[in-house]
Amino acid sequence: METDACEIERLPDELLAAVISLTTPPDACRAAAVSRAFLAAADSDAVWSRFLPRVLPSFAQGELPCAPPSKKALFRRLSDEPALLPCKLVSMRLDRATGAKCYTLSARALHISWGDNPNYWVWINLGCDEIKTNKSFKEAAKLRGVWWLEIRGKIHSMLLSQNSAYAAYMVFKLADDGFSQLDFPFQEASISVGGSESTRQTCLQGYMKVGDNGVPRKHLLVSRTRHFTLLGPRLDAEPLTNDIVLPRKRADGWMEVELGEFYNEEGDDGEVSVSLMETKGGVWKDGLVLWGIEIRAKQ
Fold first, then answer.
1. 80 to each of 154, 238, 256, how far by Cα in Å?
2. Is the pLDDT of residue 193 over 90?
3. Mean pLDDT throughout 51-77?
4. What is the mean pLDDT of the chain?
5. C-alpha distances out from residue 243 to 12, 15, 84, 167, 236, Å
6. Tens-place pLDDT, residues 194-244
7. What does the alpha-carbon distance between residue 34 and residue 272 come to, in Å, rounded to a whole number?
8. d(CA 199, CA 191)
9. What is the dihedral angle through the alpha carbons of 292, 293, 294, 299, rounded to the nearest 10 degrees?
10. Do the bridges between strand 196-202 and strand 244-245 make them parallel or antiparallel, or are there none, so unpaired?
11. Nearest-CA neighbor of 277 among 102, 139, 110, 160?
12. Of 156, 135, 137, which is closest to residue 55 (Cα–Cα)?
């Protein structure tokens, strides 16, 4: 082993950097940790320039240091926590494993039907702990009640990393003071990009949880207000089949539901449009707290 280490140390740093740059950011960090011979090359700007996107968006003033000490430091800053764009309604971070650009659209950046009418939606300030956890947006939209639920977001494909798989997630909570009709009728989620569209059904009033035996199980939550429809009392719900997508609980206390996935090739497919809707059931829905939509790299 000592002979092998000595042989490695004789290799030029430029050659070691060229080899390490063909791996991944986690591999480069492991290389720097296990061998002194790799340390200088693995931490070099030559390596981390390959992991950083060629083009980064403009960021809001003060989000990044004026002169990051190294390319690795810049990568770590953007992968550790998101940075706000100038509008301060959208943030971006880098995927730790791939360096792909990931975006979060705040609730303010989304189109919410009736979202500007306080009879239906209200804007609430988040607590200090929630702001510290999410490190981006300070408010969320709370649904007081609507018959017509429609949430839409969009981002241009050229802002995303090329030749990368993505998934869109809606980040939300169910209100502590009550919620109803977010289980059935099921919501329809869709993603459209480059002339193609995919759809799926979701059920926001439930979640998936891995049981003690390692098998994911579905859990449904009971509404805290009486079910009522335009036509009278609510009809029986449809069975929760395997194709209905349920949310999962996040470590930060929020929930997220996957709205769909897509592949970004050269970034020339125009806008990526994401939506979640329930407009056909004729039921009064309330108690949804919407934080935003995340567009994340799909492993």
1. 24, 42, 20
2. yes
3. 92
4. 88
5. 54, 50, 35, 17, 19
6. 889 999 999 999 888 877 676 777 777 877 655 555 545 554 556 778 899
7. 42
8. 7
9. 140
10. parallel
11. 110
12. 156
Dist CA 284 CA 59 (whole Å): 40
Burial of 116 (0-12, 13-18, 19+ CB in 10 A): exposed
Q: Are 138 and 163 in contact (CB under 8 A)?
A: no
Peptide bond into 118 cis (omega under 30): no
Kindly state the tokens that stand for 35: 């061998």
Question: Tell me: the pLDDT tens digits for 246-274?
Answer: 999 999 889 999 999 999 998 888 999 99
* Identity of residue 241: T
Amino acid at 228: F
